[in-house]
Amino acid sequence: MPDPTYDLFVIGAGSGGVRAARMAASQYGARVAVAEPAALGGTCVNVGCIPKKLYSFAAHYAEAFEESHGFGWSGAAPTLDWAQLKANRAREITRLNGIYGGLLSGAGVTVLRGSATVKGPNAVEVNGEVHRARHILVATGGWPVVPPLPGSEHAITSNEVFDLKDFPKRLLVVGGGYIACEFASIFTGLGSHVTQLYRGEQVLRGFDDDVRHFVADEMRKKGVDLRTRSDVASIEKAADGLRVALKDGTQVVADSVLYATGRAPNTAGLGLEEAGVKLALSGAVVVDEHYQSSVPGIHALGDVTARVQLTPVALAEAMVLVDHLFGAGQRRLDYELIPTAVFTHPNIGTVGLTEAQARQRLGAVRIYRSEFRALRHTLSGSTERTLMKLVVADASDRVVGLHMVGADAGEIVQGFAVAMRAGATKAVFDATLGIHPTVAEEFVTMRTPVA
Ligand SMILES: Cc1cc2nc3c(=O)[nH]c(=O)nc-3n(C[C@H](O)[C@H](O)[C@H](O)COP(=O)(O)OP(=O)(O)OC[C@H]3O[C@@H](n4cnc5c(N)ncnc54)[C@H](O)[C@@H]3O)c2cc1C
Fold first, then answer.
1. Cα dist from 356 to 361, 406, 447, whole Å
2. What dihedral do alpha carbons 110, 116, 118, 123 form, nearest 10°?
3. Closest ligand 1 atom, CA of 303?
4. Most distant CA pair in the chain: distance in Å?
5. Residue 409 and residue 343: Cα distance in Å, rounded?
6. pLDDT tens column, 297-356
7. Is 173 in the pocket of ligand 1 (CB under 6 A)?
8. For residue 174, how far is its CA from the centre of ligand 1 (angstroms)?
């Protein structure tokens, strides 16, 4: 190969792409380019984690005002200015886009504004120009999919929901995954009447069963009209809103219908198959443990590989790949014990195995579980309850699963994830003193197994 222009050509400036480009250039002095047609930062920054968390904060204020009465506060309930919230969010996202641009240019990465197409193992085309690179990294993420059904053109996805022109007073959310549940909670908090439909038995498949049932009950208590074993037949535009016919013959009328039923890897039209890159049936790039595709020199990570679709995973994969390509790095990412949060109201925080997974993999397990009303709610008047659960391998005494539904669950679980990665046993949890009075102390004070 003639000397290529770049050591690494990254397609997509999202979580994984930006991290890989930046680390390769700044840590290893690699010549790096990144192509991106849209705003820098990808899904997480623009239409994912960040705007969602901002709206979740906004939604919590409604509860906070309500609860403040129990602590002696009084006054008229404030109202939400949707236009103001959207404008403030947009300003913050623009600031973050600028930071991403600064990080890339500061590291000496060439940013090409346009869509990229792979033209072979070492060639990428952007805006009609072909660039040669020793390595290509496909980090193009995913895109929400609305299943074909009559009237599907009236549905929106998570890409549009943050910027709806008018606040949806009646919102129908379709889906039972974490994104659907989060939006159902958030818009309920913001003041929408939310109906959520999920065709399965229970929302949040893959999470611990206790967590799934508990959070579904809490979401209902907060006002989400959550209906399981329920699905949409068709959507029709009418004078009073979108008329949504359900498969059970009933009907829901809503201002907006948000589909959050799944995301597809962004590989269509990328030229990957023409270059010989193997794709899974879902369209995901098939990669080995070093993120190499079936074509040497073409790599992929993050959501486009459709494995664990979380920003910290894409970031970690990027660092492992860059070490592997340009350093001595042979390390592999350990996909066990990935902590994660769901920003339903109340939040979910979880790390490690569910009870069912632990029983299947490890046989004998001990379960510790506590359900209670947090101290704050003794005065706030809220009926919100908290769930905390430990799954312990009986033979080794190691804590292999830790689950929580309650305020700030993600903040609490992050620290416990460190202890679990270090191999903490239940005896270590028992020997740890609690911080009193907190909710988190319950994780180190549960003594009697419930199962
Ligand atoms: C609503 C929502 C909420 C979420 N909340 C969380 C959360 O709370 N926590 C969490 O960890 N994760 C969350 N995620 C998931 C997280 O956003 C993704 O896992 C993460 O962004 C994946 O990073 P990535 O680099 O693989 O892809 P992305 O961040 O999606 O970046 C891909 C980039 O590639 C670009 N691209 C696509 N095609 C081309 C092309 N042909 N040429 C050049 N560029 C191209 C795209 O424009 C995009 O900028 C959420 C996702 C959604 C949708």
1. 9, 21, 21
2. -30
3. 26
4. 75
5. 9
6. 999 999 999 999 999 999 999 999 999 999 987 789 999 999 999 999 999 999 999 999
7. no
8. 21
